[in-house]
Amino acid sequence: MDIPVVYTDDHVVAINKPPGVLVHTFSHQSEIETVVSWAQEMFPEIAEVGDDLIHRPGVIHRLDRETSGVLLVARSQEFYIHIKKQFLERQVHKVYLGIVHGEVTEPGTIDAAIGLVRGSTRRSTHGQKMRKEAITSYNPLKVFEWGGRTCTLLEITPRTGRTHQIRVHMNSINHPIVGDKLYSPKKNKDVPVLRHLLHAFSISFLDLDGERRTIEAPLWSDMNELVSL
């Protein structure tokens, strides 16, 4: 796989994860290429980093398979412990770029707990199982027309880190992510894209010296071509 490295030092590597690539599998016998299999070849030292050396060595956080963007992989156990603590204390700041259906003209914040829908693996603001606090802020950057659709490019900041949080929250206000067939199958049934259009644009954290570091990853071509219209 050709995975762009956007930053690296002795303790961490940051990549621009391509859409459609799994971060890791749940079986060490799988032959599927993942971020982990690529990273183990490029940075063999990650084999000794993390809390699950079989399935996800070096993995600090994850992105959905279809979500692209900046992803950190730890190269040292010291950094792994250091940044996991920051995630728990909400000291890591992430910004996403997402293309949603409809026109969004004003910034806003969605404060709605997310839980599992009974009998399903889908999440919802109406889900009753394992409900957890979830807060997402968004800011419109550009409204444009595409294939007879009105779409908006949003800058999206998750204040919490729930599974599928951005996708669930944007769908809850009737502005689902373009291409998201899980949370808005009817609206996205005939959309001519291969994935949901969500990109992790930047991540900010404290390095081992206590200095705040911000790393950005440029949009992949499928999203960049649309927002350039």
Characteristic key phrases:
229 residues; Pseudouridine synthase; three-stranded antiparallel beta sheet; 4 helices; 33% strand; globular
Description of the molecule:
The chain is α+β, with helices and mostly antiparallel strands and 229 residues long. It has one domain: Pseudouridine synthase. It is built from four helices and twelve strands; from the N terminus they run E-E-H-E-H-E-E-E-E-E-E-E-H-E-E-H. Strands 1, 2, 3, 4, 5, 9, 10, 11 and 12 form a nine-stranded mixed β-sheet that branches. Strands 7-6-8 form a three-stranded antiparallel β-sheet, covered by helices on one side. The radius of gyration is 18 Å and the shape is globular. The mean pLDDT is 94.
Task: Set down the secondary structure blueprint.
Layout: E1 5-8, E2 12-17, H1 35-42, E3 68-74, H2 77-88, E4 93-101, E5 108-111, E6 114-116, E7 123-124, E8 129-132, E9 135-146, E10 149-158, H3 165-172, E11 198-206, E12 212-216, H4 221-227
Parallel strand pairs: 3-11
Antiparallel strand pairs: 1-2, 2-3, 4-10, 4-11, 5-9, 6-7, 6-8, 9-10, 11-12
Brief synopsis:
The chain is 15% helix and 33% strand. With 229 residues, the protein is an alpha+beta fold.
Backbone CA Rg = 18 Å
What's the CATH architecture? Answer: 2-Layer Sandwich
Count the beta strands. Answer: 12
Dominant shape = globular
Give the quaternary arrangement of the chains: single chain
Which CATH first-tier class would you pick?
Alpha Beta
CATH homologous superfamily annotation: Pseudouridine synthase
| CATH topology assignment | Pseudouridine synthase
**Helix content range:** 10-25%
On the 0-100 scale, what is the average pLDDT? 94
Q: How many domains make up the 3D coordinates?
A: 1
Unreliable runs? none
Strand content: 25-35%
How far apart are the first and last residues' alpha carbons, in Å? 29 Å
Secondary structure category: alpha+beta
Count of separate DSSP helical elements: 4
